[in-house]
Amino acid sequence: MLKIQFFSLIRMLLKRDAIELSWTEGDTVQSVLDKTQTQIATPFLHKLLDENGEPHAGTIILVNRKNILHLQGLQTSVEDGDVLAFFPPGAGG
User: Fold this and answer.
1) 86 contacts: CB under 8 Å, gap ≥ 6
2) Residue 63 to residue 86: CA distance in whole angstroms
3) What is the pTM of this model?
4) From its phi and psi, is residue 29 left (phi > 0), alpha (psi between -120 and 50) or beta?
């Protein structure tokens, strides 16, 4: 199983802080994002990804507390038992 954690505005939008998804061999961060969206009726990917499917500036996606920007981005492999955390870009001043 994979644990998916939601933070900030996504948590407020979805009215939940986490879900669990089954892991499939070959899963990547991108495939987990897609699976997560299919499990949740409320659209949320637009808060994390732009129209080209790339993370918005300021989006943080962690796999086991490691930022995917320092791994293989959306193609980062995930394994059974991993924890992914989704943080939308922050705003304010």
Assistant:
1) 4, 5, 6, 7, 10, 33, 48, 60, 61
2) 9
3) 0.94
4) alpha
Domain boundary assignment for the chain: 2-87
Query: Do 6 and 17 meet the contact criterion of CB atoms below 8 Å apart?
Result: yes
Q: Is the CATH number of domain 2-87 3.30.300.30?
A: no
Largest CA distance in the chain: 42
Q: What is the pLDDT along the chain (93 residues), one digit of tens a residue?
A: 999 999 999 999 999 999 999 999 999 999 999 999 999 999 999 999 999 999 999 999 999 999 999 999 999 999 999 999 999 998 554
What burial class does residue 81 get, using C-beta atoms within 10 Å of its C-beta: 0-12 exposed, 13-18 middle, 19+ buried? exposed
Name the nearest CA neighbour of 4 among 25, 31, 26: 31
Nearest of 31, 43, 38 to residue 74 by alpha carbon: 31
